[in-house]
Amino acid sequence: MDIRSADRANSLEEHWMPFTGNRDFKENPRLIVKGEGMYYTDHKGGKVIDGSSALFCSPAGHARPEIADAVHAQLLENSYSAPFQLGHAGQFELARKVADLLPEPMNHVFFVNSGSEAIDTALKMVMAYHRANGEGQRLRFVSRERAYHGVNMGGVSLSGMVKNRETFPVVMPNVVMMRHTWTGKELFCDGRPQHDGVELANDLERHCMTYGGATIAAVFVEPVAGSTGTLVPPVGYIERIREICDQYGILLVFDEVITGFGRLGAPFASQLFGVTPDICTMAKALTNGCIPMGAVACRDEIYETVTDAAPDNAIEFFHGYTYSGHPAACAAGIAALDIYEREGLFQKAAELAPYFAKAVMGLRSHKLVRDIRTIGLMSGIEVHPGAAPGIRGQEMQKAMFWNGCHVKFTGDTGIVAPAFIATEAHVDEIVDRFRYTLDQFAAM
């Protein structure tokens, strides 16, 4: 078909959509025309409750006027200034606000534009630190099976999800994988499983014994593996990873792109689990999803080692993006963090979590449900696969939308993660629409 000869006024063909079956979508599109609070409006006028905070991005709900007003004012004052060798006040204010939410001694923040960029930046930060520290032989990175660390080549190299790798085989060398933490021994678990935490974490020590601990630069861990379906770490797992890293001089990187900014009821998962990483990546909720932005925070020692190793007046870290710390993104981030603090949204998430867990666990008896894993305001509801893995989940996501609920699916797992402004009634509505969709598929 020659799309240039077609009427383009309402054409969907020109846009190549990300992580989407383009042909299937364009036959029966699901278009959002408005978002407000907990709800979307679709292009047919239907009301759709947002069960996944979009992509875990919008804990304060949609269309917050405070953020829109802050961005509007910033664009009228300074719409863009170069981030290299120049700065603006918003960058420094937002960095201070982010640092205040992080555990000590994480007081240095580098701004990027997405979670994927945050991972690549963290990889470079690790390399720069070891080189400045005289340990340039540390060239190996450790990740996990079923890990998701974004879509840039560094993140794909660290990825343990096969669909994110198989089309892009040319990746970074020297990446080794630990096992993921879902063993299937403890199904329908609310919170941290009690089994195998230390034993699974000891995969890292086996890598140290196999390759030499002094050759490993960093371990990348999602405190809760989110995009793969809410895999909650067993008791003792995160703690043991930290111990091994300390023993061998390995940097520990937490990918908190999903878990950062209150999703688990604490500002960051590091505070909930009582384990402080050396580097932390974040994005998504940093601006409530309003403008693309991410960040990488590091311990003071990492920043000081890299900067002190360079000559006076020299660039210490040869890295950055044209839109790092964009003025409008910083304005959105400042406004979003102010909302979280003013409305006590992290505390509200913690208070709603027990009701949320009980509500989603109410689906456990459904014959299509294989497992449910939940922590904070985040749950993975895994259904038994259909004709092939992932087919049922993909079809359920589409059907659920037309049943009035958006839930993000990965394979056959629906990841329910409502905004922190949600009420118990909103949780009930999300679960009811999930159940209704399950009943539809069970009747097929």
From TrEMBL:
Query: Which Pfam families has this protein been placed in?
Result: Aminotran_3 (PF00202)
For this UniProt entry, the molecular function terms from Gene Ontology, in alphabetical order, are:
pyridoxal phosphate binding; transaminase activity
Top-rank lineage group of the source organism? Bacteria
TM segment ranges: none
Enumerate the SUPFAM superfamilies for this protein: PLP-dependent transferases
Q: Which InterPro entries match?
A: Aminotrans_3, PyrdxlP-dep_Trfase, PyrdxlP-dep_Trfase_major, PyrdxlP-dep_Trfase_small
* UniProt KW keywords: Aminotransferase, Pyridoxal phosphate, Transferase
The family this protein is said to belong to: Belongs to the class-III pyridoxal-phosphate-dependent aminotransferase family.
**Protein name as it appears in the record:** Aminotransferase class III-fold pyridoxal phosphate-dependent enzyme
